[in-house]
Amino acid sequence: VQLQASGGGLVRAGGSLRLSCVTSGFARDANAIGWWRQAPGKEREGISCINGKDGSSYYADSVKGRFIISNENAKSTTYLQMNDLKPEDTAVYYCATAPLYATKLVGGTCDFYGDFGSWGQGTLVTVSS
Questions:
Q1: What DSSP element (H or E) covers 42?
Q2: Hey, what long-range contacts does 112-115 have (CB within 8 A, 24 or more apart)?
Q3: Staple 49 to which of 2, 13, 18, 110, CB 3.0 to 4.6 Å?
Q4: DSSP assignment of 89-112
Q5: Are 5 and 95 in contact (CB under 8 A)?
Q6: Under 8 Å between Cβ of 48 and 36
Q7: Do the Cβ atoms of 49 and 31 come closer than 8 Å?
């Protein structure tokens, strides 16, 4: 299982970025794929995930209405469109996946049971005020 996140960068408050997560090594229609972020000095936060089987999407309250997660299975890619960015969105963003049977809903988005999650490297998003 491999995940490669990209698309981070520096943007002004109110701007937009689109993150991409290219995946391989698993059946996307049997897995959930999600995005997490970790800001300096803070715990990792789950922000969004998508059910690969039925396309259902989930969002944490902190990003609901501003971020959109989507799949483009022909490109084995999951996107996170981030709009109306705020300085508090500054963080390293990670994508991860796990089988649907090992996925649970927590705080409006997904988390994975035990060690089932596979993680990519992060991409840094910096939002200036």
A1: none
A2: 112/32
A3: 110
A4: G-EEEEEEEEEGGGEEEETTEEEE
A5: yes
A6: no
A7: no
Cross-strand bridge partners of residue 5: 21
Residue 67 in tokens: 């971020």
Q: Are 123 and 6 in contact (CB under 8 A)?
A: yes
Q: Label residue 107 by pLDDT band (50, 70, 90).
A: confident
Residue 99: both structure tokens together: 């089988």
Cβ burial of 99 (10 Å; 0-12, 13-18, 19+) is middle
For the CA atoms of 20, 26, 31, 34, the dihedral, rounded to the nearest 10 degrees, stands at -30
Tokens of 34: 């999600």
Which amino acid is it at 28? R
Summarised one tens digit per residue, pLDDT across range 34-78 is: 999 999 999 999 999 999 999 999 999 999 999 999 999 999 999
**Residues present in the chain in total:** 129
Cα separation of 123 and 8, whole Å?
5
- The count of C-alpha atoms lying within 13 angstroms of the C-alpha of 117, restricted to the half-sphere facing its C-beta, is 18
